[in-house]
Design goal:
It contains one helix and 24 strands. 5% of the residues lie in helices and 42% in strands. The strands form three sheets. Strands 2-5-8-11-14-17-20-23-24 form a nine-stranded mixed β-sheet. The chain is globular, with a radius of gyration of 18 Å. Strand 23 and strand 24 form a beta hairpin. It is mostly beta strands.
Length: 216
């Protein structure tokens, strides 16, 4: 059985370590973590990746001669549940902060993508993310009023449902929920709920549903 399409680019040392030696990976039989050369995995001894259904491939599609890295970090007690695999292209970053959880079906994310989870991020099945996609479920820093009290909620879950297409240069912020089958246009910031099967664009500086019942 072929493990991946580009065998010569796999970092076989890391492949053996993460799949057969590390206690931080709990994988279903016949599924593998596939780190391409340039992938950096920094997983705390109390953190865990649960892999089932298909392979998780990190750092693929790199240009010949490129030294671009793919960076993955799980901090204390972080958990990542990967169901049906995922594909992180070269030059992507995924971080799970202490006690936080990411749960996903199969998704792919192109170069320049950044996912940082402080509480909970859920990504559905068959989600496609283009270049320079940013997903954050926290402000990470407080905004204070005159009395020194925080005026913002630091952490709120992000939910991206099945078969969503995030095109390119999109930021998805805490509390967002993107309905299944939707397409989010380029250069947008999402801060709220988006209906299913909608095409979203910016109209007069506001997010608008410009087409309903879309399919892709």
């Amino acid at each position: 059985k072929q493990i991946c399409k580009t065998r010569t680019k796999v970092d076989w040392f890391q492949f053996i370590y993460w799949n057969f030696i590390s206690k931080q990976i709990d994988r279903e039989k016949s599924t593998f973590i596939i780190p391409h050369k340039g992938t950096v995995l920094d997983i705390d001894k109390t953190a865990k990746i649960y892999l089932s259904g298909a392979n998780a491939e990190f750092g693929g599609n790199k240009l010949r001669g490129s030294k671009a890295e793919t960076l993955i970090r799980l901090e204390k007690n972080a958990k990542w549940f990967i169901k049906n695999g995922c594909y992180l292209f070269y030059d992507t970053v995924l971080e799970i902060k202490p006690d936080a959880v990411i749960e996903n079906g199969f998704f792919s994310i192109n170069g320049g993508g950044v996912i940082v989870c402080a509480k909970n991020i859920q990504i559905g099945e068959d989600v496609m993310m283009g270049r320079n996609i940013m997903i954050y479920d926290s402000d990470f820093h407080s905004v204070l009023n005159n009395e020194g009290e925080a005026t913002n909620y630091f952490k709120r879950p992000v939910v991206i449902e099945d078969h969503v297409w995030l095109t390119n240069n999109i930021t998805v912020l805490k509390g967002s929920q993107i309905g299944s089958g939707s397409i989010v246009g380029s250069y947008l910031t999402v801060r709220k709920g988006i209906p299913s099967n909608s095409l979203i664009e910016t109209v007069n500086s506001e997010l608008k549903v410009i087409r309903e019942n879309v399919t892709w």
